[in-house]
Amino acid sequence: MRIANLAGRAVLLTESGALDVHEASGGALGPEPQALFDRWDQARPVLATLTGEALPYAEEDLRAPVPRPGQIFAIGVNYRDHADEADLQAASTDAPPVTFTKFAASLTGPAARVDLPEGWVDWEVELVVVIGRGGHRVDPAAAWDHVAGLTVGQDLSERLTQWAGPAPQQFSLGKSYPGFSPTGPAVVTLDEVPDPADLRIGCTLNGETMQDSRTAEMIFDVPALVARLSAITPLLPGDLIFTGTPAGIGATRTPPRFLAPGDELVSTIEHLGALRTTFS
């Protein structure tokens, strides 16, 4: 299933269009997208049975598929090539993953226009995990059972705010301006993904490839992240985990390159789809 938010209503995206969840379920499921993930164990069996007429839709009407998560986790330095380009020590699986949060007000959809704040705004394409079944101290072997699905994300970052000192740096603030968390176009359930542990991930800026890697290169894979995070704090249905970015960000280029008004950033993960973000 490909679960999306079409102008504020929960829909299933198909090859022929969008199927309204509330109408197709005869009212068994509500129209609000967040509610599907908040009650995932009850909603999923109903979603899997839905049929009906899928109607054409405009991509610009798609919004963040999980619009109001209770918690947003974000992982830093989770690809070795990104650690190398940023001259940072690669994460060690002997220690907890580098973790911060992005505030929910920064969420936006897959066809967003973002107003750039002053400063140096950078891109970071990321696989985003959507939690379906909450849990505390989840065993890694059971971690995928707690995942509702996967989606594409961008961890946009204003570097001057992020790097403001003294220590610690202001990661969460620098990554939470309005529109700094594009997600979508849909939450794709794992049965739609041949190998959810190994997906091609990348982004282009004005048609030029900036990042191109595979999620199999993550230091902490999805089961490890679910286990490590839930070992400390319970995960809740509808939570998001931004899982880190591969090499190719703007800050490490020579000279550095940052986003400017008029730019178009396209972020893609195979089997999940693409985000198209423009800047003003």
TrEMBL record:
The keyword Methyltransferase does not apply. GO terms for molecular function: hydrolase activity. Pfam families: FAA_hydrolase. Residues 72-279 form the Fumarylacetoacetase-like C-terminal domain. Gene3D superfamilies: Fumarylacetoacetase-like, C-terminal domain. Keywords: Hydrolase, Metal-binding. Belongs to the FAH family. This is Fumarylacetoacetate hydrolase family protein. The lineage of its organism: Bacteria, Bacillati, Actinomycetota, Actinomycetes, Streptosporangiales.
